[in-house]
Amino acid sequence: MLRPYFRRNLLRLAGGFSALMLVDLLQLFIPRIVKNAVDLLQKGVATPGGLLDYGVYITLIAFAIAVFRFVWRQLIFGFSRIVEIDLRNRMLSHLLSLDKVYFQKTTTGEAMALATNDLSAVQLGVGMGGVAFVDAVFMGFAAFGFMLYIHPILTLIALAPMPLLAFLTRTLSSRLHGRFKKVQEQFSLLTEFVRSTLSSISLVKAYNQEELQKQRFAQMGQTFVGDNLKLAVVNGTLFPVFGFIGNFSMLLVLVFGGRLTISGTITAGDFVAFISYLFIMTWPMMAMGWVADLFQRGVTSLSRIEALLSEKPVLAERDEMPQGARPGPDPGPGPSLSGEIRVENLFFEYPGQAARGLKGIDLHVPRGMLLGIVGRTGAGKTTLCNLLARLFPVPDGSIFFDERDVNSISIKSVRSAIAYVPQDVVLFSDTIAFNIAFGRPHASFEDIERVARAAAINDDIAAMPQGYETRIGERGVKLSGGQRQRIAIARALLLDRPIILIDDGLSAVDMETEHAIILSIASYLKGRTCIIVSHRIAPLADADQIVVMEKGRVVDRGPHMELLERNAFYSSIYRHQTNSYAEGGVTGGEQ
Q1: Domains of the chain (ranges plus CATH)?
Q2: Where are the beta strands (DSSP E) in 429-572?
Protein backbone atom coordinates (compact mmCIF):
# COMPACT_ATOMS: atom_id res chain seq x y z
CA MET A 1 0.00 0.00 0.00
CA LEU A 2 2.83 2.40 0.81
CA ARG A 3 5.13 1.34 -2.04
CA PRO A 4 3.81 3.96 -4.50
CA TYR A 5 4.69 6.71 -2.01
CA PHE A 6 8.25 5.43 -1.68
CA ARG A 7 8.64 5.18 -5.46
CA ARG A 8 7.33 8.69 -6.09
CA ASN A 9 9.56 10.20 -3.41
CA LEU A 10 12.68 8.13 -4.05
CA LEU A 11 14.99 11.13 -4.55
CA ARG A 12 13.67 12.86 -1.43
CA LEU A 13 14.20 9.73 0.65
CA ALA A 14 17.65 9.09 -0.84
CA GLY A 15 18.70 12.62 0.06
CA GLY A 16 17.19 12.40 3.53
CA PHE A 17 18.74 9.08 4.47
CA SER A 18 22.09 10.10 2.97
CA ALA A 19 22.07 13.17 5.22
CA LEU A 20 21.08 10.95 8.17
CA MET A 21 23.99 8.57 7.55
CA LEU A 22 26.39 11.50 7.18
CA VAL A 23 25.29 12.70 10.61
CA ASP A 24 25.90 9.23 12.02
CA LEU A 25 29.29 8.98 10.33
CA LEU A 26 30.40 12.37 11.63
CA GLN A 27 29.36 11.36 15.15
CA LEU A 28 31.59 8.31 14.89
CA PHE A 29 34.68 10.43 14.25
CA ILE A 30 34.36 12.35 17.51
CA PRO A 31 35.52 9.38 19.67
CA ARG A 32 38.58 9.04 17.40
CA ILE A 33 39.48 12.68 18.04
CA VAL A 34 38.98 12.19 21.77
CA LYS A 35 41.18 9.04 21.60
CA ASN A 36 44.05 10.98 20.03
CA ALA A 37 43.76 13.73 22.63
CA VAL A 38 43.74 11.23 25.52
CA ASP A 39 46.76 9.38 24.11
CA LEU A 40 48.70 12.65 23.87
CA LEU A 41 47.76 13.49 27.45
CA GLN A 42 48.82 10.02 28.62
CA LYS A 43 52.20 10.34 26.92
CA GLY A 44 52.66 13.84 28.36
CA VAL A 45 53.24 15.46 24.96
CA ALA A 46 49.95 17.32 24.69
CA THR A 47 50.07 21.10 24.16
CA PRO A 48 47.33 23.73 24.65
CA GLY A 49 47.46 24.53 20.96
CA GLY A 50 47.10 20.89 19.97
CA LEU A 51 44.17 20.36 22.29
CA LEU A 52 42.58 23.56 20.94
CA ASP A 53 42.89 22.15 17.42
CA TYR A 54 41.04 19.02 18.51
CA GLY A 55 38.35 21.26 20.05
CA VAL A 56 38.00 23.14 16.76
CA TYR A 57 37.64 19.83 14.88
CA ILE A 58 34.88 18.72 17.21
CA THR A 59 33.15 22.12 16.83
CA LEU A 60 33.27 21.93 13.03
CA ILE A 61 31.91 18.38 13.10
CA ALA A 62 29.12 19.48 15.44
CA PHE A 63 28.20 22.31 13.03
CA ALA A 64 28.14 19.91 10.07
CA ILE A 65 26.00 17.49 12.10
CA ALA A 66 23.49 20.30 12.81
CA VAL A 67 23.25 21.20 9.09
CA PHE A 68 22.77 17.63 7.88
CA ARG A 69 20.35 16.89 10.72
CA PHE A 70 18.19 19.81 9.57
CA VAL A 71 18.27 18.43 6.01
CA TRP A 72 17.20 14.90 6.90
CA ARG A 73 14.43 16.09 9.21
CA GLN A 74 13.01 18.26 6.43
CA LEU A 75 13.20 15.50 3.83
CA ILE A 76 12.21 12.41 5.83
CA PHE A 77 9.66 13.93 8.18
CA GLY A 78 8.32 15.90 5.23
CA PHE A 79 7.82 12.59 3.41
CA SER A 80 5.86 11.18 6.37
CA ARG A 81 3.57 14.21 6.25
CA ILE A 82 3.08 13.73 2.51
CA VAL A 83 1.99 10.14 3.18
CA GLU A 84 -0.29 11.31 5.98
CA ILE A 85 -2.14 13.97 4.00
CA ASP A 86 -2.46 11.78 0.91
CA LEU A 87 -3.83 8.86 2.92
CA ARG A 88 -6.27 11.18 4.66
CA ASN A 89 -7.48 12.50 1.30
CA ARG A 90 -7.78 8.95 -0.05
CA MET A 91 -9.77 7.87 2.99
CA LEU A 92 -12.22 10.75 2.70
CA SER A 93 -12.60 10.26 -1.06
CA HIS A 94 -13.21 6.56 -0.52
CA LEU A 95 -15.72 7.18 2.26
CA LEU A 96 -17.62 9.52 -0.07
CA SER A 97 -17.71 6.76 -2.69
CA LEU A 98 -19.27 4.20 -0.33
CA ASP A 99 -23.02 3.84 -0.04
CA LYS A 100 -25.50 3.56 2.80
CA VAL A 101 -24.89 -0.15 3.24
CA TYR A 102 -21.39 0.53 4.57
CA PHE A 103 -22.48 3.32 6.93
CA GLN A 104 -25.21 1.13 8.36
CA LYS A 105 -22.57 -1.28 9.68
CA THR A 106 -19.81 1.22 10.56
CA THR A 107 -19.98 4.02 13.11
CA THR A 108 -18.88 7.58 12.47
CA GLY A 109 -16.52 7.27 15.45
CA GLU A 110 -14.72 4.38 13.75
CA ALA A 111 -14.08 6.47 10.63
CA MET A 112 -12.95 9.44 12.75
CA ALA A 113 -10.52 7.25 14.69
CA LEU A 114 -9.03 5.95 11.44
CA ALA A 115 -8.54 9.49 10.16
CA THR A 116 -6.89 10.68 13.39
CA ASN A 117 -5.32 8.16 15.75
CA ASP A 118 -4.59 5.41 13.22
CA LEU A 119 -3.28 7.82 10.62
CA SER A 120 -1.00 9.41 13.22
CA ALA A 121 0.41 5.95 14.04
CA VAL A 122 1.14 5.32 10.36
CA GLN A 123 2.82 8.72 10.03
CA LEU A 124 5.04 8.03 13.03
CA GLY A 125 5.93 4.59 11.73
CA VAL A 126 6.87 5.92 8.28
CA GLY A 127 8.71 8.97 9.61
CA MET A 128 10.28 8.47 13.00
CA GLY A 129 10.16 4.69 12.70
CA GLY A 130 12.13 4.74 9.44
CA VAL A 131 14.63 7.23 10.84
CA ALA A 132 15.17 5.23 14.02
CA PHE A 133 15.57 1.98 12.08
CA VAL A 134 18.11 3.29 9.57
CA ASP A 135 19.90 5.28 12.25
CA ALA A 136 20.12 2.27 14.57
CA VAL A 137 21.29 -0.14 11.87
CA PHE A 138 23.88 2.22 10.38
CA MET A 139 25.17 3.44 13.75
CA GLY A 140 25.22 -0.09 15.09
CA PHE A 141 27.25 -1.57 12.24
CA ALA A 142 29.56 1.45 12.01
CA ALA A 143 30.24 1.46 15.75
CA PHE A 144 30.74 -2.30 15.54
CA GLY A 145 33.36 -1.77 12.85
CA PHE A 146 35.25 0.82 14.88
CA MET A 147 35.12 -1.43 17.93
CA LEU A 148 36.51 -4.35 15.90
CA TYR A 149 39.33 -2.11 14.72
CA ILE A 150 40.25 -1.32 18.34
CA HIS A 151 40.09 -4.91 19.67
CA PRO A 152 38.09 -7.79 18.10
CA ILE A 153 37.97 -10.01 21.22
CA LEU A 154 36.75 -7.19 23.45
CA THR A 155 34.09 -6.42 20.83
CA LEU A 156 32.76 -9.99 20.91
CA ILE A 157 32.68 -9.89 24.71
CA ALA A 158 30.77 -6.60 24.68
CA LEU A 159 28.20 -7.93 22.19
CA ALA A 160 27.70 -11.31 23.89
CA PRO A 161 24.26 -10.31 25.34
CA MET A 162 22.90 -9.36 21.88
CA PRO A 163 21.18 -12.72 21.08
CA LEU A 164 19.02 -12.23 24.18
CA LEU A 165 18.08 -8.78 22.85
CA ALA A 166 16.99 -10.23 19.50
CA PHE A 167 14.86 -12.89 21.20
CA LEU A 168 13.10 -10.40 23.46
CA THR A 169 12.44 -8.01 20.57
CA ARG A 170 10.74 -10.74 18.54
CA THR A 171 8.69 -12.03 21.48
CA LEU A 172 7.47 -8.69 22.78
CA SER A 173 6.82 -7.17 19.35
CA SER A 174 4.27 -9.87 18.53
CA ARG A 175 2.33 -8.90 21.65
CA LEU A 176 2.43 -5.23 20.75
CA HIS A 177 0.32 -5.80 17.63
CA GLY A 178 -2.66 -7.37 19.38
CA ARG A 179 -2.66 -4.98 22.32
CA PHE A 180 -2.34 -1.87 20.18
CA LYS A 181 -5.21 -3.08 17.97
CA LYS A 182 -7.43 -3.31 21.06
CA VAL A 183 -6.40 0.20 22.09
CA GLN A 184 -7.33 1.60 18.67
CA GLU A 185 -10.68 -0.19 18.65
CA GLN A 186 -11.53 1.16 22.09
CA PHE A 187 -10.51 4.65 20.97
CA SER A 188 -12.99 4.30 18.10
CA LEU A 189 -15.75 3.44 20.57
CA LEU A 190 -14.85 6.44 22.73
CA THR A 191 -14.90 8.76 19.73
CA GLU A 192 -18.27 7.48 18.56
CA PHE A 193 -19.73 7.81 22.06
CA VAL A 194 -18.65 11.46 22.35
CA ARG A 195 -19.95 12.23 18.85
CA SER A 196 -23.34 10.63 19.42
CA THR A 197 -23.71 12.24 22.87
CA LEU A 198 -22.94 15.74 21.63
CA SER A 199 -25.12 15.39 18.53
CA SER A 200 -28.01 14.26 20.78
CA ILE A 201 -27.36 16.69 23.61
CA SER A 202 -30.96 17.98 23.64
CA LEU A 203 -32.32 14.47 24.14
CA VAL A 204 -29.76 13.72 26.84
CA LYS A 205 -30.80 16.81 28.77
CA ALA A 206 -34.53 16.28 28.19
CA TYR A 207 -34.28 12.79 29.70
CA ASN A 208 -31.95 13.88 32.55
CA GLN A 209 -29.33 11.39 31.39
CA GLU A 210 -26.25 13.54 31.99
CA GLU A 211 -25.06 11.50 34.95
CA LEU A 212 -25.67 8.18 33.21
CA GLN A 213 -23.78 9.35 30.13
CA LYS A 214 -20.89 10.48 32.32
CA GLN A 215 -20.83 7.08 34.02
CA ARG A 216 -20.86 5.26 30.67
CA PHE A 217 -18.08 7.46 29.37
CA ALA A 218 -16.07 6.91 32.55
CA GLN A 219 -16.46 3.13 32.21
CA MET A 220 -15.35 3.26 28.58
CA GLY A 221 -12.45 5.49 29.64
CA GLN A 222 -11.41 2.96 32.29
CA THR A 223 -11.45 0.20 29.68
CA PHE A 224 -9.36 2.40 27.39
CA VAL A 225 -6.89 3.10 30.19
CA GLY A 226 -6.76 -0.60 31.06
CA ASP A 227 -5.96 -1.51 27.45
CA ASN A 228 -3.29 1.18 27.37
CA LEU A 229 -1.79 -0.12 30.61
CA LYS A 230 -1.57 -3.61 29.12
CA LEU A 231 0.18 -2.06 26.14
CA ALA A 232 2.43 -0.09 28.48
CA VAL A 233 3.47 -3.33 30.21
CA VAL A 234 5.02 -4.46 26.92
CA ASN A 235 6.58 -1.06 26.24
CA GLY A 236 7.71 -0.83 29.84
CA THR A 237 9.42 -4.18 29.48
CA LEU A 238 11.17 -3.39 26.20
CA PHE A 239 13.11 -0.31 27.23
CA PRO A 240 14.33 -1.34 30.70
CA VAL A 241 15.46 -4.73 29.36
CA PHE A 242 17.32 -3.11 26.49
CA GLY A 243 18.86 -0.61 28.90
CA PHE A 244 19.91 -3.44 31.23
CA ILE A 245 21.55 -5.33 28.36
CA GLY A 246 23.40 -2.17 27.31
CA ASN A 247 24.64 -1.54 30.85
CA PHE A 248 25.63 -5.18 31.25
CA SER A 249 27.73 -4.86 28.09
CA MET A 250 29.32 -1.77 29.63
CA LEU A 251 30.18 -3.79 32.74
CA LEU A 252 31.88 -6.42 30.60
CA VAL A 253 33.92 -3.74 28.82
CA LEU A 254 34.99 -2.15 32.10
CA VAL A 255 36.13 -5.50 33.50
CA PHE A 256 37.89 -6.95 30.45
CA GLY A 257 38.79 -3.69 28.71
CA GLY A 258 40.25 -2.29 31.91
CA ARG A 259 42.55 -5.29 32.17
CA LEU A 260 43.65 -4.87 28.54
CA THR A 261 44.43 -1.22 29.20
CA ILE A 262 46.41 -1.99 32.38
CA SER A 263 48.41 -4.65 30.54
CA GLY A 264 49.12 -2.20 27.69
CA THR A 265 47.33 -4.27 25.04
CA ILE A 266 45.25 -1.18 24.18
CA THR A 267 45.95 2.45 25.00
CA ALA A 268 43.92 4.56 27.38
CA GLY A 269 42.66 6.48 24.35
CA ASP A 270 41.51 3.25 22.73
CA PHE A 271 39.71 2.32 25.94
CA VAL A 272 37.92 5.70 26.11
CA ALA A 273 37.02 5.50 22.41
CA PHE A 274 35.76 1.91 22.84
CA ILE A 275 33.49 3.00 25.69
CA SER A 276 32.21 5.89 23.53
CA TYR A 277 31.42 3.48 20.70
CA LEU A 278 29.69 1.18 23.15
CA PHE A 279 27.53 4.12 24.24
CA ILE A 280 26.76 4.66 20.57
CA MET A 281 25.87 0.96 20.31
CA THR A 282 23.53 1.35 23.27
CA TRP A 283 21.29 3.67 21.21
CA PRO A 284 20.68 1.03 18.50
CA MET A 285 19.88 -1.51 21.22
CA MET A 286 17.41 0.89 22.81
CA ALA A 287 16.13 2.07 19.43
CA MET A 288 15.25 -1.41 18.20
CA GLY A 289 12.65 -1.70 20.94
CA TRP A 290 11.27 1.72 20.04
CA VAL A 291 11.36 0.87 16.33
CA ALA A 292 9.51 -2.38 17.01
CA ASP A 293 6.86 -0.41 18.91
CA LEU A 294 6.48 2.23 16.18
CA PHE A 295 6.39 -0.32 13.38
CA GLN A 296 3.87 -2.56 15.12
CA ARG A 297 1.61 0.41 15.83
CA GLY A 298 1.99 1.59 12.24
CA VAL A 299 1.37 -1.87 10.77
CA THR A 300 -1.71 -2.38 12.95
CA SER A 301 -3.17 1.00 12.01
CA LEU A 302 -2.26 0.56 8.36
CA SER A 303 -4.13 -2.75 8.26
CA ARG A 304 -7.22 -1.00 9.67
CA ILE A 305 -6.93 1.73 7.04
CA GLU A 306 -6.42 -0.87 4.30
CA ALA A 307 -9.59 -2.61 5.46
CA LEU A 308 -11.48 0.64 4.94
CA LEU A 309 -9.95 1.30 1.53
CA SER A 310 -10.73 -2.27 0.44
CA GLU A 311 -14.45 -1.76 1.06
CA LYS A 312 -16.40 -1.68 -2.18
CA PRO A 313 -19.69 0.14 -2.73
CA VAL A 314 -22.63 -2.15 -3.32
CA LEU A 315 -23.85 0.23 -6.01
CA ALA A 316 -21.59 -0.07 -9.06
CA GLU A 317 -21.08 2.63 -11.67
CA ARG A 318 -21.37 1.83 -15.36
CA ASP A 319 -17.75 0.77 -15.80
CA GLU A 320 -18.03 -1.40 -12.69
CA MET A 321 -21.45 -2.90 -13.34
CA PRO A 322 -22.00 -6.46 -12.14
CA GLN A 323 -22.27 -9.24 -14.65
CA GLY A 324 -25.71 -9.46 -16.20
CA ALA A 325 -26.56 -5.76 -16.02
CA ARG A 326 -27.83 -4.41 -19.32
CA PRO A 327 -25.77 -1.51 -20.70
CA GLY A 328 -27.43 1.48 -22.26
CA PRO A 329 -26.75 5.04 -23.36
CA ASP A 330 -25.33 7.18 -20.60
CA PRO A 331 -27.02 10.57 -20.43
CA GLY A 332 -23.89 12.07 -18.93
CA PRO A 333 -23.28 13.71 -15.58
CA GLY A 334 -25.84 16.48 -15.97
CA PRO A 335 -29.59 16.40 -15.18
CA SER A 336 -30.64 15.34 -18.69
CA LEU A 337 -33.44 12.99 -17.65
CA SER A 338 -36.91 14.38 -18.36
CA GLY A 339 -38.60 13.04 -15.24
CA GLU A 340 -40.70 10.04 -16.23
CA ILE A 341 -40.48 7.20 -13.70
CA ARG A 342 -41.77 3.65 -14.01
CA VAL A 343 -41.52 0.94 -11.36
CA GLU A 344 -42.28 -2.67 -12.28
CA ASN A 345 -42.67 -5.54 -9.83
CA LEU A 346 -40.07 -4.08 -7.44
CA PHE A 347 -39.00 -6.32 -4.59
CA PHE A 348 -36.39 -5.20 -2.06
CA GLU A 349 -34.97 -6.25 1.27
CA TYR A 350 -32.31 -4.44 3.29
CA PRO A 351 -28.95 -6.22 3.59
CA GLY A 352 -28.87 -8.50 6.61
CA GLN A 353 -32.65 -8.48 7.06
CA ALA A 354 -34.91 -11.37 6.18
CA ALA A 355 -38.14 -9.37 5.92
CA ARG A 356 -38.74 -7.62 2.63
CA GLY A 357 -39.23 -3.88 2.65
CA LEU A 358 -41.04 -3.76 -0.70
CA LYS A 359 -43.14 -6.50 -2.27
CA GLY A 360 -43.98 -6.18 -5.93
CA ILE A 361 -44.37 -2.40 -6.28
CA ASP A 362 -45.81 -1.14 -9.59
CA LEU A 363 -45.95 2.58 -10.34
CA HIS A 364 -46.01 4.88 -13.33
CA VAL A 365 -45.24 8.55 -12.76
CA PRO A 366 -45.41 10.54 -16.02
CA ARG A 367 -43.31 13.64 -16.41
CA GLY A 368 -44.80 16.64 -14.61
CA MET A 369 -47.04 14.60 -12.26
CA LEU A 370 -47.48 15.51 -8.60
CA LEU A 371 -47.69 12.16 -6.82
CA GLY A 372 -48.55 11.81 -3.14
CA ILE A 373 -47.65 8.71 -1.13
CA VAL A 374 -49.35 7.94 2.19
CA GLY A 375 -49.35 4.98 4.53
CA ARG A 376 -48.69 3.83 8.05
CA THR A 377 -45.22 3.85 9.57
CA GLY A 378 -43.25 0.95 8.13
CA ALA A 379 -45.33 0.75 4.96
CA GLY A 380 -42.20 1.13 2.79
CA LYS A 381 -42.53 4.77 1.75
CA THR A 382 -38.98 5.79 2.74
CA THR A 383 -37.56 2.57 1.28
CA LEU A 384 -39.13 3.43 -2.08
CA CYS A 385 -37.67 6.95 -1.92
CA ASN A 386 -34.21 5.58 -1.09
CA LEU A 387 -34.34 3.29 -4.11
CA LEU A 388 -35.51 6.03 -6.46
CA ALA A 389 -32.66 8.22 -5.21
CA ARG A 390 -30.21 5.36 -5.95
CA LEU A 391 -29.06 4.87 -2.37
CA PHE A 392 -29.42 1.07 -2.55
CA PRO A 393 -29.05 -1.41 -5.41
CA VAL A 394 -32.17 -2.63 -7.20
CA PRO A 395 -32.77 -5.65 -9.44
CA ASP A 396 -32.57 -5.18 -13.21
CA GLY A 397 -35.81 -4.34 -14.91
CA SER A 398 -37.52 -2.92 -11.82
CA ILE A 399 -37.00 0.88 -12.03
CA PHE A 400 -36.93 2.89 -15.26
CA PHE A 401 -36.18 6.56 -15.89
CA ASP A 402 -37.36 7.77 -19.31
CA GLU A 403 -37.89 4.10 -20.26
CA ARG A 404 -34.25 3.26 -19.49
CA ASP A 405 -33.34 0.68 -16.89
CA VAL A 406 -31.86 2.55 -13.95
CA ASN A 407 -29.00 0.03 -13.83
CA SER A 408 -27.98 1.09 -17.35
CA ILE A 409 -27.65 4.74 -16.31
CA SER A 410 -24.76 6.06 -14.23
CA ILE A 411 -25.58 6.72 -10.60
CA LYS A 412 -24.33 10.28 -10.95
CA SER A 413 -26.72 10.93 -13.82
CA VAL A 414 -29.73 9.69 -11.88
CA ARG A 415 -28.85 11.65 -8.74
CA SER A 416 -28.14 14.75 -10.82
CA ALA A 417 -31.75 14.62 -12.01
CA ILE A 418 -33.27 14.37 -8.52
CA ALA A 419 -33.65 17.00 -5.80
CA TYR A 420 -34.07 14.84 -2.72
CA VAL A 421 -35.35 15.92 0.69
CA PRO A 422 -34.80 12.94 3.01
CA GLN A 423 -36.88 12.18 6.06
CA ASP A 424 -33.93 12.89 8.35
CA VAL A 425 -32.93 16.46 7.49
CA VAL A 426 -29.18 17.04 7.51
CA LEU A 427 -27.81 20.55 8.02
CA PHE A 428 -24.20 21.62 8.40
CA SER A 429 -22.69 23.74 11.16
CA ASP A 430 -22.44 26.75 8.87
CA THR A 431 -24.54 29.68 7.71
CA ILE A 432 -28.13 29.38 6.50
CA ALA A 433 -27.04 30.63 3.07
CA PHE A 434 -24.42 27.88 2.86
CA ASN A 435 -26.96 25.20 3.76
CA ILE A 436 -29.51 26.37 1.19
CA ALA A 437 -26.85 26.69 -1.53
CA PHE A 438 -25.15 23.37 -0.68
CA GLY A 439 -26.09 21.83 -4.03
CA ARG A 440 -25.29 25.06 -5.94
CA PRO A 441 -22.36 26.70 -4.10
CA HIS A 442 -22.20 29.64 -6.54
CA ALA A 443 -25.91 30.49 -6.48
CA SER A 444 -26.70 34.19 -6.21
CA PHE A 445 -28.26 35.68 -3.10
CA GLU A 446 -31.39 36.53 -5.09
CA ASP A 447 -31.88 32.88 -6.03
CA ILE A 448 -31.31 31.75 -2.43
CA GLU A 449 -33.83 34.27 -1.14
CA ARG A 450 -36.36 33.32 -3.83
CA VAL A 451 -36.44 29.64 -2.89
CA ALA A 452 -36.49 30.54 0.81
CA ARG A 453 -39.67 32.53 0.17
CA ALA A 454 -41.19 29.60 -1.69
CA ALA A 455 -40.39 27.32 1.28
CA ALA A 456 -41.95 29.86 3.71
CA ILE A 457 -38.71 30.30 5.65
CA ASN A 458 -37.57 33.74 4.48
CA ASP A 459 -39.42 35.65 7.23
CA ASP A 460 -37.89 33.43 9.93
CA ILE A 461 -34.43 33.99 8.48
CA ALA A 462 -34.91 37.75 8.24
CA ALA A 463 -35.77 37.85 11.95
CA MET A 464 -32.45 36.28 12.89
CA PRO A 465 -29.53 38.50 14.02
CA GLN A 466 -27.32 37.92 10.95
CA GLY A 467 -30.07 36.90 8.54
CA TYR A 468 -28.82 34.46 5.93
CA GLU A 469 -25.31 34.62 7.47
CA THR A 470 -26.55 33.24 10.79
CA ARG A 471 -24.62 30.14 11.79
CA ILE A 472 -27.03 27.41 12.83
CA GLY A 473 -24.79 25.07 14.82
CA GLU A 474 -24.28 21.31 14.59
CA ARG A 475 -27.15 19.74 12.60
CA GLY A 476 -29.08 23.02 12.81
CA VAL A 477 -29.37 22.87 16.60
CA LYS A 478 -30.37 26.55 16.77
CA LEU A 479 -33.43 25.97 14.58
CA SER A 480 -36.79 24.35 15.20
CA GLY A 481 -37.69 21.13 13.43
CA GLY A 482 -39.99 22.96 11.03
CA GLN A 483 -37.32 25.53 10.19
CA ARG A 484 -34.80 22.79 9.43
CA GLN A 485 -37.25 21.06 7.12
CA ARG A 486 -38.13 24.24 5.26
CA ILE A 487 -34.45 25.04 4.72
CA ALA A 488 -34.08 21.53 3.28
CA ILE A 489 -37.04 22.20 0.96
CA ALA A 490 -35.42 25.48 -0.18
CA ARG A 491 -32.14 23.63 -0.81
CA ALA A 492 -33.95 21.14 -3.05
CA LEU A 493 -35.81 23.84 -4.96
CA LEU A 494 -32.58 25.72 -5.68
CA LEU A 495 -31.23 22.71 -7.56
CA ASP A 496 -33.85 23.23 -10.32
CA ARG A 497 -33.98 19.54 -11.28
CA PRO A 498 -36.62 17.62 -13.24
CA ILE A 499 -37.53 15.34 -10.31
CA ILE A 500 -38.29 16.49 -6.76
CA LEU A 501 -38.52 13.83 -4.08
CA ILE A 502 -39.76 14.90 -0.63
CA ASP A 503 -39.85 12.13 1.96
CA ASP A 504 -42.05 13.37 4.79
CA GLY A 505 -40.08 16.61 4.63
CA LEU A 506 -42.78 18.75 6.26
CA SER A 507 -43.79 16.59 9.20
CA ALA A 508 -42.56 19.18 11.72
CA VAL A 509 -44.90 21.95 10.51
CA ASP A 510 -48.63 22.09 11.08
CA MET A 511 -51.07 20.91 8.44
CA GLU A 512 -52.05 24.39 7.31
CA THR A 513 -48.41 25.47 6.84
CA GLU A 514 -47.64 22.25 5.00
CA HIS A 515 -50.51 22.86 2.62
CA ALA A 516 -49.42 26.48 2.12
CA ILE A 517 -45.85 25.42 1.32
CA ILE A 518 -47.01 22.84 -1.21
CA LEU A 519 -49.16 25.50 -2.92
CA SER A 520 -46.26 27.98 -2.75
CA ILE A 521 -43.83 25.68 -4.50
CA ALA A 522 -46.39 24.78 -7.16
CA SER A 523 -44.78 27.24 -9.59
CA TYR A 524 -41.52 25.31 -9.25
CA LEU A 525 -43.26 22.03 -9.96
CA LYS A 526 -44.58 22.95 -13.42
CA GLY A 527 -43.07 20.55 -15.92
CA ARG A 528 -41.33 18.65 -13.12
CA THR A 529 -42.11 15.32 -11.56
CA CYS A 530 -42.75 15.66 -7.82
CA ILE A 531 -43.22 12.83 -5.34
CA ILE A 532 -44.26 13.88 -1.84
CA VAL A 533 -44.43 11.37 1.02
CA SER A 534 -46.57 12.51 3.93
CA HIS A 535 -48.31 11.06 6.94
CA ARG A 536 -50.98 13.69 6.52
CA ILE A 537 -53.53 13.44 3.76
CA ALA A 538 -55.15 16.88 3.53
CA PRO A 539 -52.06 18.72 2.16
CA LEU A 540 -51.93 16.18 -0.70
CA ALA A 541 -55.53 16.77 -1.77
CA ASP A 542 -54.39 18.68 -4.88
CA ALA A 543 -52.00 15.94 -6.02
CA ASP A 544 -52.64 14.45 -9.48
CA GLN A 545 -52.61 11.00 -7.91
CA ILE A 546 -52.19 9.56 -4.43
CA VAL A 547 -50.73 6.13 -3.69
CA VAL A 548 -51.67 4.25 -0.51
CA MET A 549 -48.99 1.85 0.76
CA GLU A 550 -49.25 -0.86 3.38
CA LYS A 551 -46.69 -3.51 4.42
CA GLY A 552 -44.46 -2.88 1.41
CA ARG A 553 -47.25 -2.98 -1.16
CA VAL A 554 -49.34 -0.46 -3.09
CA VAL A 555 -52.89 -1.21 -1.95
CA ASP A 556 -54.68 1.62 -3.74
CA ARG A 557 -54.13 4.66 -5.93
CA GLY A 558 -56.15 7.46 -7.45
CA PRO A 559 -57.22 11.09 -6.96
CA HIS A 560 -58.07 12.33 -3.49
CA MET A 561 -61.87 12.27 -3.87
CA GLU A 562 -61.93 8.75 -5.33
CA LEU A 563 -59.84 7.38 -2.49
CA LEU A 564 -62.11 9.04 0.06
CA GLU A 565 -65.07 7.22 -1.44
CA ARG A 566 -63.62 3.73 -1.87
CA ASN A 567 -60.70 3.27 0.57
CA ALA A 568 -61.72 2.79 4.18
CA PHE A 569 -58.21 3.27 5.59
CA TYR A 570 -57.65 6.46 3.58
CA SER A 571 -61.00 8.02 4.47
CA SER A 572 -60.74 7.15 8.18
CA ILE A 573 -57.23 8.65 8.44
CA TYR A 574 -58.38 11.76 6.58
CA ARG A 575 -61.39 12.26 8.88
CA HIS A 576 -59.29 11.67 11.99
CA GLN A 577 -56.63 14.18 10.92
CA THR A 578 -59.02 16.91 9.79
CA ASN A 579 -61.24 16.53 12.88
CA SER A 580 -58.21 16.68 15.18
CA TYR A 581 -56.97 19.82 13.44
CA ALA A 582 -60.42 21.46 13.53
CA GLU A 583 -60.68 20.78 17.25
CA GLY A 584 -57.32 22.45 17.85
CA GLY A 585 -55.28 19.27 18.11
CA VAL A 586 -51.81 19.46 16.61
CA THR A 587 -51.01 16.72 14.16
CA GLY A 588 -47.56 18.07 13.58
CA GLY A 589 -46.19 21.48 14.52
CA GLU A 590 -42.94 23.40 14.85
CA GLN A 591 -40.59 21.39 16.98
Answers
A1: 3-309 (1.20.1560.10), 331-417+497-591 (3.40.50.300), 426-487 (no CATH)
A2: 499-503, 529-533, 545-550, 553-558
